[in-house]
Amino acid sequence: xxxxxxxxxxxxxxxxxxxxxxxxxxxxxxxxxxxxxxxxxxxxxxxxxxxxxxxxxxxxxxxxxxxxxxxxxxxxxxxxxxxxxxxxxxxxxxxxxxxxxxxxxxxxxxxxxxxxxxxxxxxxxxxxxxxxxxxxxxxxxxxxxxxxxxxxxxxxxxxxxxxxxxxxxxxxxxxxxxxxxxxxxxxxxxxxxxxxxxxxxxxxxxxxxxxxxxxxxxxxxxxxxxxxxxxxxxxxxxxxxxxxxxxxxxxxxxxxxxxxxxxxxxxxxxxxxxxxxxxxxxxxxxxxxxxxxxxxxxxxxxxxxxxxxxxxxxxxxxxxxxxxxxxxxxxxxxxxxxxxxxxxxxxxxxxxxxxxxxxxxxxxxxxxxxxxxxxxxxxxxxxxxxxxxxxxxxxxxxxxxxxxxxxxxxxxxxxxxxxxxxxxxxxxxxxxxxxxxxxxxxxxxxxx
Amino acid sequence: xxxxxxxxxxxxxxxxxxxxxxxxxxxxxxxxxxxxxxxxxxxxxxxxxxxxxxxxxxxxxxxxxxxxxxxxxxxxxxxxxxxxxxxxxxxxxxxxxxxxxxxxxxxxxxxxxxxxxxxxxxxxxxxxxxxxxxxxxxxxxxxxxxxxxxxxxxxxxxxxxxxxxxxxxxxxxxxxxxxxxxxxxxxxxxxxxxxxxxxxxxxxxxxxxxxxxxxxxxxxxxxxxxxxxxxxxxxxxxxxxxxxxxxxxxxxxxxxxxxxxxxxxxxxxxxxxxxxxxxxxxxxxxxxxxxxxxxxxxxxxxxxxxxxxxxxxxxxxxxxxxxxxxxxxxxxxxxxxxxxxxxxxxxxxxxxxxxxxxxxxxxxxxxxxxxxxxxxxxxxxxxxxxxxxxxxxxxxxxxxxxxxxxxxxxxxxxxxxxxxxxxxxxxxxxxxxxxxxxxxxxxxxxxxxxxxxxxxxxxxxxxxxxxxxxxxxxxxxxxxxxxxxxxx
Lengths: 448, 488
Prior knowledge:
Strand order of the largest sheet of chain A: 3-4-5-6-7-8-9
Oligomer: heterodimer
Distance between the termini of chain B: 89 Å
Shape of chain B: globular
Helix content of chain A: 40-55%
Number of helices of chain B: 14
Distance between the termini of chain A: 74 Å
């Protein structure tokens, strides 16, 4: 016990030799006037560095015995620290007995080398404390110091078969716990970066009792008051939110299983807030890049025909075009839309008789997201114009002659999310096949 | 000696003159320099009002909703009989509400003479509905059937305890009348999508035994008055005198209106009254509505199964169900803000029969509206809101008899629901305490609700302002934050 306490002084004491030796180095090479006269300053400075270095190495060794750290990383730090201590001792000896006069090159080389070694030792120490990627964050390991926003970097591509553990619990532990409980840093002998490790537990035993959150150490610790020593995550680190605590509670209560599938529990109130953050629909929201404004003459032309053509937001070049104010839409009117087709984001032609019209201009609406063709008398032929559109998410064909044939053609569209087919010839029975091909497409056939 | 004195006084005079020049001049310079205020605020100094007060025309950012249908339940629906299941109230029926629960909350003048505040058990049984197992009462089975579409906010609260201020507060952001309501702000800011219909239409339905409602609730306040809500009458002819009299045809009407417009404008060159322009706008809108309205109110082309979905009242003008189906037809024609008021929720007494009557009048049609919009593909960009101006107390008003008991106004917590228009579906947001008296989790103030509404329409509630009487006003007054947890 006492060894642990002494060990914990290492992070404090170690700054003393760092400071004193750096100062000595500075005085030697940056202020050469003080340097070469062999003043007693350097005696004292190097002696203090040596003594404080020993005073730091000893608790450091005790700390390494606690088992909280990965032995490989400790190895480098530990032995280079010992080497540094010896070198400093050597420097002191050369200083005291004027060795620097007889072997000036060796003396200076040793000095500079020691400074370099100090940087190496210090960096290794920092890595032990803060984790890799602290100084220069890289993609894998930077997570340990990432902010608290709970976003999964890798979109859960397949929520249909993802397990609750992989999709929800593991990412949560990754953000809030694994900075200290993983392979490279094993605080309390506990690893939380893998299902087997969580089950195994740590120095103080198992952390969860399957089915019984109240007896689980994990739950006990996260619920301790924040000022309690054993409270997890430690004070100063990102804390768990209420919803996250509820998730862990729920997961343990339901068996802490790695195989429980997400879709089996998707409707539970605890799970839902988390589902929202990884929901496929949310991540698929197309990122809209800015668009140059549409040509004003072209806009004036279509407005003169009766179309409303407004930017979807102030300053945006993307257009929302609607024929709601027109008495009728003629073929020439649609032709006038063609030059602006690549600006159209939302198009509403609802209620106009388009049965006899050529709708191939739709192929040029390469960025269109929402298309409303309800009650226009169109048929399956329109599907051929739509199926290559890369961004279409909403298609409304309510009250038209659209049928299963057209549905088959559009169901492969990767971007399509909602299709409204009330009062069409689409049959309920075809929906199963569509779901198999494109599970993200929701089809609403209304009241039958 | 005099020289000495003279010199002494001269110095004083010079010091005074010098000081005053620097002092007053400094003040003037300060105004000119704007004294360190931001450039954006600087720009408004000396900017003519017409520059500041311009409709935004397009939203600040991409909207999720384009239309709003606000089903306002006037009187204050009792949340304990409808949405907020509190088992404790059944157990503690007849017992005094603990004073610690009431705390410092306001009670209205109507119960200030009461010496006893017994808790009244809800006059309803609750069951679980939907994939989330949300608790809803037996009185709203149709709403329960669409609960997976709804975003229910149980933690609404307000400060207003009486009807008129509370309704005006919910609609305008301030309890004193004189400010524009939500619909007027939207009509002014975004304008109308359908040029043949007003952007803001209001319909009333009366449920019996109700509080009056004034048109301050759909007033345009200080905005140009043609942005006020156009109230449809509760009769077979919703817009009176819309049709031309016998012998006058549309061309005659057009020529007459053109001439009237001409002479109005000649006179307005003298008067410079903005109301004249409003009047001209209204004439023009009426002219266009002559074409558009008959097709909306004529329900003969509605299939029978759709009419049945709304309930038996649907063909009776002036009922909530009828107004709902009209609202749907208006939404199909891109009317931006459709507001329904159903009067009849103010159950100070006879709550047991009152709540059954009010829900019978509204439940089926509210749910039918959501279902109908959804199957037409309109729910995604139409925000439907259902709610009142405040809630009701869990303690009884008056003597606690099973049939006669009532509940008083309660601003501390109430429930509203929203559907479509970019809100999360299947969500129950916020919680109240076991006595349904205080909000304990995720408070949503009226201003927060208004800020969120504007956000869904793509408007930043802090940027959307109108300057009048020397001050900038906005719908959310000086507070309100968007509740992002409600947004999908």
